[in-house]
Amino acid sequence: MISSYLKEEIDLRISRISALLAEMGCDAMLVTSNVNLFYTSGRVFSGYTYITKEGEVKYFVKRPVGLQGDNVKYIRKPEQIAELLEAKPQKIALELDSLTVNDYTRLSKVFADSEKCDASGILRRCRAVKTAYEIEKMKESGVGHDEAYKHIREIYREGMTDMELQVEVERQLRLQGSLGIFRIHGESMEIFMGNVLCGDNADAPSPYDFAMGGAGLHESLPVGCNGTVIEPGMTVMVDMCGNFNGYMTDMTRVFYVGKLDETAKKAHELSMAIHHRLMEEGKPGVAASRLYEIAMEMTKEAGLEAYFMGHKQQAGYIGHGVGIEVNESPVLAPRSRDVLEAGNIIALEPKYVIPGVGAVGVESTYVVTETGLECVTNYPEEIAEL
């Protein structure tokens, strides 16, 4: 089931989960979502990962055929899980934030005599602190992300629409090895590989909980580029996904055409200054909310709070954890209870929307270390002319 080079890594993750199960007084956990199946096995399959507080693990697989290993058990339906367990748990953790009511009802019958609790917090807590292996994967993704962004200025053509430019950026990402999928945690959160936002489309409110919106190309996916022709005086914000190996990197860089508006220039320079300040402040033990407070303080000092994290509709955070999903813990928001830990990987995105011009600001992905934040997406931050 697990390749030999990944076994030590998966064993480490299972040991973390089992320790938290014991801490919560749970006997076992049943993992069902694709992201957490990947986290607990190194691959996505149709089925379940079963983990005990003692660190024992079993993979109950429906598809694909041919997976092997002493802990792989093939099943046709979840009811067979109970038949294959030597003893049922007295208390079992289930992913309550992702299970449908139907699936929860069915699994509740499988474990009818077991008390149920929520596994979601345990898994998000484990995934928030990356292992050395995961950090290396994020750095690899950052390299591919940087390489794709190096082509943005050369692929721009006068008269392009935002959609045409995004297609070409997507092509560069795919040529660098991007897997294309952008996994997002949360109810009804969806996007296609990221956003290219030009001019006032950056000010269009979106139903999704993203820092920037955009009207989108159709009412069925109302976010992102909308066919705006890129014209002089506009900014062009490129905020695309960097998934090259199952681990996401998040990076935003901004370009402009013609003359750059002075307020937009000031706001972009402020965003860079916030990044540099938070790179020093972002150490283990610092409250995530403190990073938001610093960004807001600097923004108010510059008199730009009306444009901070949106204009018509403002986002209530300046960053988020990144990993198997693009929005993991910790959350950098004013009411966040998260505290930074060594091994967290976060995306910082202090951004501004200037009416009549567009969006500006930098987003980069960082590893939290004992000495501050280490950047893994290193394409130049400065706003550049197309």
Number of strands: 17
3D shape: elongated
Largest sheet: 6 strands, mixed
Let me know the average pLDDT.
96
Topology:
Layout: H1 4-24, E1 28-31, H2 34-41, E2 46-52, E3 57-63, E4 72-74, H3 79-84, E5 91-94, H4 101-110, E6 115-118, H5 120-128, H6 132-149, H7 152-155, H8 162-175, E7 194-198, E8 235-241, E9 250-256, H9 262-281, H10 288-301, E10 319-321, E11 328-332, E12 345-348, E13 351-354, E14 358-361, E15 364-369, E16 372-375, E17 384-385
Parallel strand pairs: 1-5, 3-4, 5-6, 9-17
Antiparallel strand pairs: 1-2, 2-3, 7-8, 8-9, 10-11, 10-12, 12-15, 13-14, 15-16
Helix pairs in contact: 6-8, 9-10
How would you describe what is shown here?
- The model has no long low-confidence stretch (mean pLDDT 96).
- It is built from ten helices and 17 strands.
- The chain is elongated and about 70 Å long.
- The protein is α+β, with helices and mostly antiparallel strands and 386 residues long.
- α6 (132-149) crosses α8 (162-175) and α9 (262-281) packs antiparallel against α10 (288-301).
Short description:
Helices cover 32% and strands 21% of the residues. It is of the alpha+beta class.
Which key terms come to mind for this protein?
five-stranded antiparallel β-sheet, alpha+beta, single chain, 386 residues, elongated, six-stranded mixed β-sheet
